């Protein structure tokens, strides 16, 4: 696809989102450029800034503040460069190990209000260790009719936060497009027809079945709807977290001795309103 020239930078559409060149996120502070970037994150869902070198934890937190208040819910790792940076690694000495492999999810899908934006940067890129992203509106649009009506009635119950119940399908608060609120690894059950006289909690067997049926919509047809981001040195990703599901690839867990050190820094910006029908 051709590159699109903007006033401030060049963008090139990828399978999901765009690659961005011609802007240095380490030093960029012009309000008009920041505004344009925010608009483009909403429009394209994923902006992948290329050739950024290594961005410090402090600077990543500053950039996250472009999108609102920083909201950190993670555990600290001794090697994290900043309390608001969640540091993930394929070496437990370097960062939290085994993260992002519990199923497709949005960042903070288990929270009362999921993150609106999630930023990702890899200061150390291994030979293999992709992150996979999925366009949520597109997944909803291609649902078979029966599944669509079933999902319309479903609400997820958070495993970690008591009383948190989210509609599976709802309208994105900013773009108004239909998206999913979900975390396939942190859902204790679902409720059918929540808030009505007919509401009903799913049995453990049903819950498992529903989780499987959601997962199937991501991986069917060889996962051809997915965008697998193979990290390159200097990549800095800004995501509209509510529009894209994600999951770490199985290769992200290959040990350092085989593929080199993988270090991912994730920061998160607070949401404003809970998902609602
Ligand atoms: Fe995640």
UniProtKB/TrEMBL annotation:
Domain (TauD/TfdA-like) spans 12-251
Name the chain's protein.
Answer: TauD/TfdA-like domain-containing protein
Its Gene Ontology molecular function terms?
dioxygenase activity; metal ion binding
Q: What's this protein's family per the entry?
A: Belongs to the TfdA dioxygenase family.
Its transmembrane ranges are none
Keywords (alphabetical) are:
Dioxygenase, Iron, Metal-binding, Oxidoreductase
- Annotated coiled-coil segments of the chain: none
């Amino acid at each position: 696809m051709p590159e699109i020239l903007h006033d401030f930078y060049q963008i090139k559409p990828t399978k999901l989102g765009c690659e961005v060149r011609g802007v240095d996120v380490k030093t960029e502070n012009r309000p008009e450029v920041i505004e344009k970037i925010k608009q483009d994150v909403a429009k394209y869902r994923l902006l992948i800034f290329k050739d950024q070198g290594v961005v410090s934890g402090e600077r990543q937190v500053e950039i996250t503040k472009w999108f609102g208040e920083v909201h950190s819910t993670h555990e600290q790792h001794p090697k994290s460069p900043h309390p608001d940076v969640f540091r993930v690694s394929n070496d437990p000495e370097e960062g939290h190990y085994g993260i992002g492999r519990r199923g497709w999810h949005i960042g903070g899908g288990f929270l009362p209000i999921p993150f609106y934006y999630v930023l990702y940067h890899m200061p150390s890129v291994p030979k293999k260790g992709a992150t996979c992203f999925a366009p949520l509106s597109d997944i909803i649009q291609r649902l078979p009719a029966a599944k669509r009506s079933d999902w319309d009635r479903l609400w997820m119950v958070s495993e970690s936060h008591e009383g948190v119940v989210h509609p599976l399908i709802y309208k994105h608060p900013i773009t108004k497009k239909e998206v999913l609120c979900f975390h396939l690894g942190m859902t204790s059950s679902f409720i059918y027809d929540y808030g009505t006289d007919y509401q009903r909690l799913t049995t453990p067997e049903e819950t498992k079945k529903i989780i499987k049926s959601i997962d199937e919509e991501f991986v069917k047809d060889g996962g051809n709807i997915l965008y697998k981001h193979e990290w390159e040195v200097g990549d800095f990703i800004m995501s509209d977290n509510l529009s894209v599901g994600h999951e770490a690839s199985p290769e992200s867990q290959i040990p350092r001795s085989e593929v080199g050190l993988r270090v991912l820094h994730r920061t998160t910006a607070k949401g404003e309103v809970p998902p609602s029908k």
